[in-house]
Amino acid sequence: GENVEQHPSTLSVQEGDSAVIKCTYSDSASNYFPWYKQELGKRPQLIIDIRSNVGEKKDQRIAVTLNKTAKHFSLHITETQPEDSAVYFCAASKASGTYKYIFGTGTRLKVLA
Amino acid sequence: DADVTQTPRNRITKTGKRIMLECSQTKGHDRMYWYRQDPGLGLRLIYYSFDVKDINKGEISDGYSVSRQAQAKFSLSLESAIPNQTALYFCATGLAVGTDTQYFGPGTRLTVL
Fold this sequence. Notes:
heterodimer; A: mainly beta; six-stranded mixed sheet; 11 strands; 56% strand; B: mainly beta; seven-stranded mixed sheet; 57% strand; globular
């Protein structure tokens, strides 16, 4: 069935360093890839997304890259800050029909001051 | 996002009890979803609905049922709760067309003893 693998499950970085989280999807028909940030005790919130007709998207310190051939996409956070500490989830979706998300299992990012 | 609300926020119940979790939204979205979050497993889809007459099973629907009472309300029921249904439950909403983005409610923490 459809599957999204996410790595690593935990990631610790020093403040100011970069963090990279990677996801691989199985359904080649997937064409929408959102990233959600979930702070402790809070709801998941969308931080950035990318569609399959785009290879890269940036929003200030965060960026997402997509490689359709390899079926993987990555979240890049530069100049990490303590408030970036959270769990990050990737997801894959087909933007037609069901609009269902298949989520990765999450990455717990810790930014050490 | 105060546009999506869930009640109750926390619930402790006993094995065999029937319980209902409620979700309401003022975003005017047609699509509504119920997810379950367990540590290390990410977010898994239980049920989803595109309108009051359209209900679909997700990947883990066994032991759950839903009701779409109106465009704005989507309830999740556990007919006979069991301990392995202890989890954090999220409702989410989305537009039927255009964007794929899903917006999450604050979550309900359910404990089944």
